[in-house]
C-alpha cells in the first residue's frame, strides 16, 4: 500500500491508545475514512490478539483490498511476546504497523514482505534520525501536547526539523484536536495527523464510563506531565491521580519501565487515566463516525480559508 493518503477521507490516524483502542474503534475509524489503530499490548495473550486481528480483518477486508488500519507493536526488549505478535502480523497483514519504544528494525522484514508500511513512533530528533536510518517508511512524531507518553517539541517545530532529513511518510501528533489543526499540520509538511484524545470519549472507545466522563468534564488545566508513573514522561488527568491518592509533590520519583503484556504498567494505566491537550474539544460522548464528520467539515473550512487568504493576497499585490 504505497499511498495511504489517497485511500482516506481525512489525513488522520486514530492513535493507538493503551487499554482504550480495540477492534470496535479500529473498525469504526476505518469505515469513517481515517486509519484506525490499536496496540497489540491491549491483548493479554497471543490468542486474544489472534481473535482481534481476525475480527478486524473480516470487517475491513484483506491485504490490498482492505480499508487502512494499523497495529502498534512495542519493540522494546522487555516485550517477550514480540515474535508471536509479528507472526500474527504476517498472518493478517495489517496495512500499517506502528513500532514504539524501540527500533523499527524487528518489524521491517515481516511487514515489507506483504507490502505493508512501517511507521516508527519517535519523541525527539535523535529517535527520529535513528528510525530513519533503520529504514522506517514513516515517522510518527509525538510532540508536546500528546496524551499518554508525550514529547517536548511543538508539532510545527518537530515537523520542520524532521523534514530537513526525512522525505518519507510523516505523522504528527500532539494537541491537535480539530479539523483546523489537521489542516495546519498538513500545510506545515505532515502527511497524516495522530489524534487520540479526540476519540477517548467515543462510543466505540474501551475506556470505562468514568474515564470518558472525566475527559468530557476536564480541560487543559486538568493535565499534568510526569515520568513518575511509568518512567517515561506522560500526560495525565490530574483528577484521576488525586482520586487514587497520588502525591503530586513526589510524583516525579523515577519508576522502572515495564512494557510486558499484563505487567505492572497495565495496572498503572488501567487505574490512572491519561489525556492530551486536545481535551477541551471533547464536550460529549459521540460515535466515531460523527466525530470524523465534524473533523472533515472543519478541515474543509480551513482549506477554504487558506484558499481565500491566497486569493486576497494576490488581490492586494495586484
From TrEMBL:
Leader peptide range in chain numbering: none
Source organism, top-level taxon: Bacteria
Recorded GO MF terms: monooxygenase activity
Key words, A-Z: Flavoprotein, FMN, Monooxygenase, Oxidoreductase
Pfam families: NMO
Keyword presence, Flavoprotein: yes
Keyword Nucleotide-binding applies: no
Family: Belongs to the nitronate monooxygenase family. NMO class I subfamily.
Name used for this protein in its record: Nitronate monooxygenase
Source organism per UniProt: Gordonia caeni
Amino acid at each position: 500500500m504505497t499511498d495511504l493518503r489517497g485511500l482516506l477521507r481525512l489525513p488522520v490516524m486514530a492513535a493507538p491508545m493503551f487499554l482504550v483502542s480495540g477492534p470496535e474503534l479500529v473498525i469504526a475509524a476505518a469505515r469513517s475514512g481515517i486509519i484506525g489503530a490499536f496496540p497489540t499490548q491491549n491483548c493479554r495473550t497471543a490468542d486474544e490478539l489472534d481473535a482481534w486481528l481476525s475480527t478486524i480483518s473480516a470487517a475491513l477486508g484483506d491485504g490490498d483490498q482492505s480499508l487502512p488500519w494499523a497495529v502498534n507493536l512495542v519493540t522494546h526488549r522487555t516485550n517477550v511476546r514480540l515474535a508471536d505478535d509479528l507472526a500474527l502480523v504476517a498472518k493478517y497483514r495489517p496495512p500499517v504497523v506502528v513500532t514504539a519504544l524501540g527500533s523499527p528494525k524487528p518489524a521491517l522484514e515481516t511487514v515489507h514482505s506483504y507490502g505493508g508500511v512501517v511507521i516508527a513512533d519517535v519523541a525527539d530528533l535523535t529517535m527520529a534520525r535513528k528510525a530513519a536510518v533503520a529504514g522506517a517508511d514513516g515517522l510518527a512524531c509525538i510532540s508536546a501536547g500528546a496524551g499518554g507518553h508525550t514529547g517536548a517539541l511543538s508539532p510545527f517545530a518537530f515537523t520542520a526539523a524532521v523534514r530537513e532529513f526525512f522525505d518519507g511518510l510523516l505523522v504528527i501528533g500532539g494537541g491537535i484536536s480539530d479539523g483546523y489543526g489537521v489542516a495546519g499540520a498538513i500545510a506545515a509538511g505532515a502527511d497524516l495527523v495522530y489524534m487520540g484524545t479526540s476519540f477517548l470519549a467515543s462510543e466505540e472507545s474501551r475506556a470505562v464510563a468514568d474515564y470518558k466522563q472525566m475527559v468530557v468534564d476536564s480541560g487543559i488545566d486538568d493535565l499534568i506531565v510526569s515520568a513518575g508513573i511509568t518512567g517515561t514522561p506522560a500526560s495525565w488527568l490530574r483528577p484521576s491521580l488525586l482520586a487514587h491518592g497520588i502525591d503530586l509533590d513526589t510524583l516525579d520519583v523515577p519508576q522502572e519501565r515495564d512494557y510486558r503484556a499484563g505487567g505492572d504498567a497495565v495496572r498503572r494505566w488501567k487505574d490512572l487515566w491519561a489525556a492530551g491537550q486536545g481535551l477541551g474539544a471533547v464536550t460529549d460522548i459521540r460515535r466515531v463516525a460523527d466525530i470524523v464528520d465534524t473533523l472533515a467539515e472543519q478541515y474543509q473550512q480551513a482549506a477554504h480559508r487558506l484558499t481565500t487568504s491566497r486569493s486576497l493576497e494576490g488581490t492586494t499585490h495586484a
